[in-house]
């Protein structure tokens, strides 16, 4: 970042001395006002619940232009990456800053394949869960538990050891998610088959059984790989900020990523794909497209607490480019399966059309986000609804790691410790129990 010749001057109507604050420019996007010395100079904090106007860090990984609906990973438009690259190339790009050449890709993919198995003891963690436990509850436990097995990766400040942990996390997430699924249906775990692609191996571990050969469907494989690419990173979203804040204490990478998994679970964030599919199924049960008007009335009624899941975004005030790509992937997968007339997909398209023409949504700039169509694709591939967010976590692990790494090597890195506006009781004395 570079110092702008523009300055911000904060003046006070009560005659307190004004304060000049430096302004910094990035390579693209909004400038920032550096308020780090504000408290020392004025004795006041800024106040920004939900961080609507707060840049928590400088980053070179992902850039989002919310007004234009643009998303760049290390400068490459998501549309180009999703159609011309695969998830392994995208992982390399997010971690190291550039797309790999042929040799770099071969070596990276081999390294990832070398870590796909998990310690045999890990399966005993699963036995502690009920068979109907939510996969995200299982994943929060399993990812944190990795630190109990892989000590070599547990030193956040040792670059070489941190790199081992990142390979282990990227490699083992598919294995763990597939194990959570197999456990829930009482089927035996399937070991990774490293001759398969990253997405193909995941499909194999999810749907193969020891009884017969499983052949990976190339259309599903490509669709899943694209879903991973679209979910890989997204600037300083809630779960990424959680990983950064958790990692800023110096804890191990497994614990920091487990915190990201826990945060992603929420329906306002990564849990929206599951909530969106459940919403579509509810509307379908009520009568489908004919009931959309009634549903929209509920959504626009503040007291109903009903939201159009998969719609709206803190940053995108235009169409989420990932939603467009997800819709295209939907069409490809449904066509491959002969499900062009899938009722839920038709219902989602009808909901989108109605919302985009409705003043409530237009005024608030609410558009489909990445979660609106992703559930329909995953359901068509045969993935259970409860596993959607675990797959989001699987894909986002590389983004969380890239952001964690960037924070650790940032010269401005220090433990995150926000302050508050205190509105509670001022000092008072304890009254003895019998007098209260
Ligand atoms: C992800 O941050 C990221 O980058 C996240 C993510 C990533 O890749 O990491 O992109 C992934 O989490 C996508 C978002 C998935 N969540 C959902 O689809 C859940 C539904 N969406 C909403 O909960 C909401 O839109 C949020 C949480 C996504 C954004 O919330 P904001 O930015 O705090 O916006 P807001 O709640 O202040 O909404 C502004 C207005 C409000 O109405 P008013 O008070 O102004 O009258 O829009 C309304 C909201 O009530 N609104 C919605 C709505 N989303 C916002 N009304 C109905 N349905 C919705 N979905």
Main features:
single chain; 436 residues; mainly alpha; three-stranded antiparallel beta sheet; 6 strands; globular; binds s-citryldethia Coenzyme A
Describe the structure.
The chain has 436 residues and is mainly alpha-helical. Helix content is 50%, strand content 6%. It has 18 helices and 6 strands. It has helices at 38-42, 78-84, 87-96, 102-113, 122-126, 135-149, 159-185, 198-207, 218-230, 238-247, 253-264, 272-286, 292-300, 321-336, 343-356, 359-363, 371-381, 388-409; strands spanning 2-10, 19-25, 32-33, 62-65, 70-73, 76-77. A hairpin with a 4-residue loop joins strand 4 and strand 5. Helix 9 runs antiparallel to helix 17 (371-381). The protein is globular, with a radius of gyration of 24 Å. The site of s-citryldethia Coenzyme A has 21 residues, from loops.
Strand order of the largest sheet: 1-2-3
Residue runs with pLDDT of under 50 for 5 or more positions: none
Multimerization status? single chain
Q: Rough shape?
A: globular
Average pLDDT taken over every residue: 95
Relative strand content: 5-15%
N-to-C order of helices and strands: EEEHEEEHHHHHHHHHHHHHHHHH
Helical percentage: 40-55%
- Tally of extended strands? 6
Bound molecules: s-citryldethia Coenzyme A
Structure annotation, total helices: 18
């Amino acid at each position: 970042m570079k110092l702008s010749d523009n300055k911000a001057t904060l003046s006070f109507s009560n005659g307190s001395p004004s304060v000049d604050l430096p302004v910094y420019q990035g390579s693209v996007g909004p400038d920032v006002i550096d308020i780090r010395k504000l408290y020392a100079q004025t004795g006041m904090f800024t106040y920004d619940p939900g961080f609507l106007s707060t840049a928590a860090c400088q980053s070179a990984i992902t850039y989002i232009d919310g007004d234009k609906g643009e998303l760049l990973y290390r400068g490459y438009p998501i549309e180009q990456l999703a159609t011309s690259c695969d998830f392994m190339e995208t992982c390399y790009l997010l971690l190291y800053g550039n797309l790999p050449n042929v040799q770099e890709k071969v070596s990276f993919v081999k390294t990832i394949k070398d870590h796909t198995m998990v310690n045999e003891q890990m399966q005993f963690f699963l036995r502690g869960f009920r068979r109907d436990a939510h996969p995200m509850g299982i994943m929060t436990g399993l990812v944190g538990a990795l630190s109990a097995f892989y000590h070599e990766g547990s030193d956040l400040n040792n670059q070489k050891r941190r790199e081992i942990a990142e390979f282990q996390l990227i490699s083992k997430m598919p294995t763990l998610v597939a194990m959570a699924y197999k456990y829930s249906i009482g089927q035996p775990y399937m070991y990774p088959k490293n001759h398969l692609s990253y997405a193909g191996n995941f499909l194999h571990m999810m749907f193969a059984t020891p009884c017969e050969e499983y052949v990976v469907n190339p259309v599903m494989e490509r669709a899943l790989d694209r879903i991973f690419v679209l979910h890989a990173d997204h600037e300083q979203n809630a779960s990424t900020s959680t990983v950064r804040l958790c990692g800023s204490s110096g804890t191990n990478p497994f614990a920091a990523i487990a915190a990201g998994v826990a945060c992603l679970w929420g329906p306002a964030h990564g849990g929206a794909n599951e909530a969106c599919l459940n919403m579509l199924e509810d509307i379908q049960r009520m009568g489908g497209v004919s009931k959309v008007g009634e549903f929209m009335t509920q959504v626009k009624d503040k007291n109903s607490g009903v939201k159009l899941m998969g719609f709206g975004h803190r940053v995108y005030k235009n169409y989420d480019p990932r939603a467009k790509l997800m819709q295209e992937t939907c069409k490809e997968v449904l066509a491959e399966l002969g499900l062009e007339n899938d009722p839920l997909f038709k219902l989602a398209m009808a909901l989108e059309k109605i919302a985009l023409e409705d003043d409530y949504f237009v005024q608030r700039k609410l558009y489909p986000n990445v979660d609106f169509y992703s559930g329909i694709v995953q359901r068509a591939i045969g993935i259970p609804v409860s596993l959607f967010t675990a797959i989001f976590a699987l894909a986002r692990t590389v983004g969380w790691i890239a952001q964690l790494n960037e924070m650790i090597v940032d010269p401005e890195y220090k433990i995150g410790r926000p302050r508050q506006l205190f509105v509670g009781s001022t000092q008072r004395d304890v009254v003895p129990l019998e007098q209260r």
